[in-house]
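Q: DUF4344 domain-containing metallopeptidase, please. Structure only.
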Amino acid sequence: MVRRGMLVIRRFASAVCCIFVSGLVLAGNTVQVRFLPASDSETQAIKQVIEQSPLVQDVIELMRERYRLSERLTIQFGGDDDPAYDEEAHTILISYDFFAEAIERFENANYAETGVTSQNAALDVLAHTLLHEFGHAIISMNKLPVVAKEEDAADSLATLLLIERFEHGQDIALSAADMFALESEDYERLEEPDFWDEHSLDAQRYYTTLCHIYGSDPDKYADLMEEVDIDQDRRELCIDEYDVLTNSWNALLAPYLQDSRKK
Ligand SMILES: [Zn+2]
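A: Structure for DUF4344 domain-containing metallopeptidase:
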């Protein structure tokens, strides 16, 4: 179901500008990456996988090369926080545990049977999560208007950037969608706090991500819609929705592109 591919964006720049070390990585521009020390050998292995992932490096490169940020953005791996964006410190926080748990969830679901290893699927989730948090960052730094749930906006930006800026980005987004589906299985029944949550329900995040993947290329993903049995009217709306979101994000982010020629 999932096929991994090469990325559209330039890879060479990452070798030049970001040398990953245990402490601080200064990139000479507005995105810096910090890996906190690992507390044990298992965490050390997780840290190394993230450090050495070309996909993670390409995601960071996309943020760095494509956008002008008004503040220096730090991406910090390690610590105890769930994925989050700290508005005051201008920092994206991702714990090693988050990545380890993603691998475990995919392993427990025998995800390798789809043709994608649990580790690679977890890296896809990490890519989507980094771009989701980047969405919060760019909204916050530039005080962008948000007229519905910001969490949904951040999800849509992550999916769109993967699809539009990475070759086979839909496959990366599919792993992220599948993680939402796995997380939705945690609930035997939904309680009131689940509906109060600032995020949409995990099941909704799953279907919405699939909807946008389909909307980006209806011919290619017609089978996907058959699998999840969505009616034709909703499919058409997915196509419209993807179009509206793409245009909206392009308009919102146009003033913050590094170089208008990269549009
Ligand atoms: Zn969020």
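A: Brief note, in case it's useful. The radius of gyration is 18 Å.
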